């Protein structure tokens, strides 16, 4: 749908435009309105081109399957996240009076028809919507953390998460779910999902459209399996089913949280599950060079290699130093990544730090450049944006600071009581590392013209 008509609705008192015959905020490819039903997901009429089939009623914003799709091959469930634009800390943001420099406003294609139009109005587009040199309509994000059984990888509820393997293997697992299209999530995609959660929580006024909503603002974020007792550290009502591991009985099944909507990124049954805790998830997009495939030497600075916009995420492979391998030495990485000096704001610091520091601004509002890239990767703008305990607004989420050869960053957190959450990250592991508490999640980049 490309025909645009005169405005038939408004956002913040400003006119918005919709394709002919489309109902406002219930139309395909729109991100919706923060704080309302259907926000944070959407539909994509060309899903079949990417090996995905519509689930029943997935075009109804009030449906638990809204924006949900199923892989034709193995039934894996994905959620479509339409392209959106964001503005951080602007005085005109609807939530500025409450959240100041950390207020976040999100709008979609119903407000701006092009990125240039959004930039002119002071809104940035997440890096997650640039892939292989083209601007995406959105991306499909696996609804559940990945599992692997009998030689098959998939994303389904109430499944046993993957067991300990060399982390690079997860790239192969994710790519096998929808061959030619799927791969591991990127830090850019994980950050975009986290921003949606933040915007939704700030705008919500009740639990009716956001099950994890907390009017007091103390725990106003998605809940998850993170207390080492099949529950949530901040909500005793949330429980999970055990994966049945004798050595780790509190390791949960994927997507088994109850009430389910409290465990999704948008507090609705149509959302992405287990974004807080459960099991760490590897994420592509940023790494550092090594001298061999097993090199894990600590790098005592914050310089990192960030994936070039011209490179297609799904083309990255799990090997080392050849072709499209996601890891390699500095010469190899330079063919796929841009070297960004001081990209990691903690430089050579190590160990845990927490997101948020009083009322200081956490994410850089820049529309381009290194600051925009840090926000795109879910990284706080500088050391003043982090503290020894973090803030409630950002879930007191933790980041394990490090930088090392062949780094393979993690996001989301863990079941064992570590500082999990949508903004949680871990930079200490590398491509050849193995750990039972680390798994994967798949994604598919989508553009009508691709």
Describe the structure.
By secondary structure, this protein is of the alpha+beta class. It has a domain at 9-142. The protein is built from six helices and 26 strands. It has helices at residues 96-99, 115-120, 169-177, 187-203, 330-333, 369-376; strands at 9-11, 14-16, 52-54, 68-71, 77-82, 84-88, 104-108, 130-131, 134-135, 138-142, 147-149, 152-154, 182-184, 280-282, 286-287, 304-307, 317-320, 325-327, 337-340, 351-355, 386-387, 398-401, 410-411, 425-426, 438-439, 442-446. The strands form eight sheets. Strands 21-20-22-24-23-14-25 form a seven-stranded mixed β-sheet, with no helix packed on it. The longest helix has 17 residues, at 187-203.
Report helical residue fraction.
10-25%
The assigned structural class equals alpha+beta
Per DSSP E runs of 2 or more residues, the count of β-strands stands at 26
N-to-C CA distance: 16 Å
Radius of gyration: 20 Å
pLDDT below 50 for ≥5 consecutive residues: which ranges?
1-27
User: What order do the strands of the largest sheet run in, or round the barrel if closed?
Assistant: 21-20-22-24-23-14-25
Strand content: 15-25%
* Outline type: globular
Q: Largest sheet, if any?
A: 7 strands, mixed
Mean pLDDT across all amino acids? 93
């Amino acid at each position: 749908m490309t025909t645009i008509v005169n405005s038939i609705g408004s956002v913040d008192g400003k006119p918005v435009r919709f394709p002919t015959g489309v109902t406002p905020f219930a139309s395909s490819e729109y991100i919706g309105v923060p704080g309302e039903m259907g926000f944070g997901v959407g539909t994509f009429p060309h899903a079949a081109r990417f090996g995905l089939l519509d689930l029943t009623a997935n075009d109804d914003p009030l449906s638990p399957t809204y924006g949900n799709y199923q892989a034709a091959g193995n039934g894996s469930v994905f959620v479509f996240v339409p392209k959106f634009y964001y503005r951080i800390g602007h005085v005109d943001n609807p939530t500025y009076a409450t959240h100041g420099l950390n207020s976040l406003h999100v709008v979609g294609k119903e407000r701006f028809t092009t990125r240039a139009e959004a930039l002119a109005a002071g809104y940035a587009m997440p890096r997650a919507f640039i892939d292989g040199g083209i601007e995406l309509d959105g991306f499909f994000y696996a609804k559940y953390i990945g599992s692997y059984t009998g030689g098959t990888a998939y994303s389904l509820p109430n499944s046993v998460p993957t067991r300990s393997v060399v982390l690079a293997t997860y790239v192969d697992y994710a790519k096998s779910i929808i061959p030619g299209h799927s791969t591991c999530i990127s830090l850019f995609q994980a950050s975009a999902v986290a921003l949606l959660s933040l915007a939704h929580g700030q705008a919500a006024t009740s639990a009716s459209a956001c099950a994890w909503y907390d009017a007091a603002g103390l725990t106003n974020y998605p809940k998850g399996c993170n207390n080492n007792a099949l529950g949530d550290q901040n909500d005793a009502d949330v429980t999970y089913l055990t994966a049945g591991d004798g050595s780790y009985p509190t390791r949960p099944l994927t997507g088994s949280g109850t009430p389910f909507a409290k465990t999704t990124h948008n507090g609705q049954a149509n959302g992405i599950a287990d974004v807080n805790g459960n099991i760490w998830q590897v994420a592509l997009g940023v790494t550092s060079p090594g001298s061999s495939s097993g090199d894990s030497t600590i790098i005592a600075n914050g310089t990192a290699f960030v994936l070039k916009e011209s490179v297609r995420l799904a083309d990255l492979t799990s090997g080392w130093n050849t072709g499209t391998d996601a890891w390699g030495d500095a010469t190899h990485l330079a063919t796929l990544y841009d070297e960004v000096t001081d990209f990691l704001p903690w430089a050579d610091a190590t160990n845990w730090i927490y997101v948020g520091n009083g009322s200081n601004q956490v994410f850089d509002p820049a529309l381009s450049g290194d600051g925009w890239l840090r926000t795109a990767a879910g990284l706080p703008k500088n050391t003043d944006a982090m503290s020894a305990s973090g803030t409630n607004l950002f879930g007191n989420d933790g980041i394990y600071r490090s930088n090392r050869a062949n780094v393979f960053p993690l996001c989301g957190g863990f079941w064992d009581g570590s500082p999990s959450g949508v903004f949680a990250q871990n930079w200490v592991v590398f491509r050849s590392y193995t750990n039972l508490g680390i798994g994967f999640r798949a994604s598919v980049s989508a553009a009508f013209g691709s």
